[in-house]
Design a protein that fits this description.
Largest sheet: 8 strands, mixed
Number of helices: 6
Strand content: 25-35%
Shape: globular
Helix content: 25-40%
């Protein structure tokens, strides 16, 4: 469909020029979520051919309250590229991420493939290698954050950047559902949350994603990094901010924003 290509190009140009664009939903008479994912896939194919390397996936709208607010009945997903990964404590150059917002998450690194369409929690536990505290910097290519579900999914589910903290831990003795996480900005506490906000449990979010991608013949593989979803409502970031999350019993992660 020419409209899909036009929408994909609009989002790519916004990313390449760091100039937000008009919502892509306006290009379609009857925008549906399958079409939104088709736009995301169009750009994914373009970026891979251009040399970007896929290193994992991200779950968006993992909180059921966020799904309800968006009129959805399940989370959404996007792709993580190698050039989106930042080191713990790195600085993000000013303007690199458009309209940045902050999320605190647990990232999962898979040790084994997850290829079944209806994985159980046992399947997920067997596949997980490590859990890592992480910060996601959500980016938005749509002007003024005028994003409906269609735009969000087309826009790689808000993929901007992600930061992996330390240490990397096995799940032994780690209850992600009851894990508490707090975020501070410039040394001041700003928010906190618990793992049960993430689709009931970050591992449930991972199971949902694995099944969704297996059904589309894009199964999760060993070595993939999965951003499972935020522990609290995302917060805006501004130039000069220094952000840190602390996940009790897991570790910490930090990132700064250049001026």
């Amino acid at each position: 469909m020419p409209e899909i290509e036009a929408a994909a190009i609009r989002l790519r140009v916004a990313e390449e020029t760091s100039k937000p664009c008009a919502p892509v939903r306006e290009l379609f008479a009857n925008p549906d979520l399958a079409t939104a994912y088709a736009i995301q896939a169009c750009n994914r194919d373009f970026w891979v051919k251009a040399g970007r390397r896929i290193v994992g996936r991200k779950v968006a709208l993992s909180a059921r309250a966020a799904q309800k607010a968006m009129g959805l009945t399940e989370p959404a997903w996007g792709t993580l590229y190698a050039d989106m990964l930042l080191g713990d404590g790195d600085e993000i150059a000013a303007g690199k991420i458009m309209q940045p917002r902050l999320e605190g998450e647990v990232a999962i690194v898979l040790e084994h493939d997850l290829t079944m369409e209806k994985p159980t929690l046992v399947d997920v536990l067997r596949a997980v290698g490590y859990a890592v505290p992480a910060i996601e910097v959500v980016g938005c290519r749509i002007s003024n954050l005028d994003t409906k579900p269609f735009d969000l999914l087309a826009d790689n589910a808000g993929g901007g950047a992600f930061v992996l903290g330390s240490p990397a831990r096995r799940l032994d003795g780690l209850d992600l559902r009851r894990l508490n996480m707090s975020m501070s900005v410039n040394g001041a506490p700003v928010t906190q949350g618990k793992g049960d906000m993430v689709y009931g449990n970050p591992l449930h979010a991972l199971a949902w994603l694995a099944g969704r991608l297996a059904a589309e013949e894009m199964p999760l593989e060993a070595g993939d990094v999965i951003m499972t979803g935020t522990f609290f409502a995302m917060l805006p970031a501004k130039p000069g901010d220094h952000v840190e999350i602390v996940a009790e019993g897991l570790g910490r992660c930090e990132v700064s924003f250049g001026v």
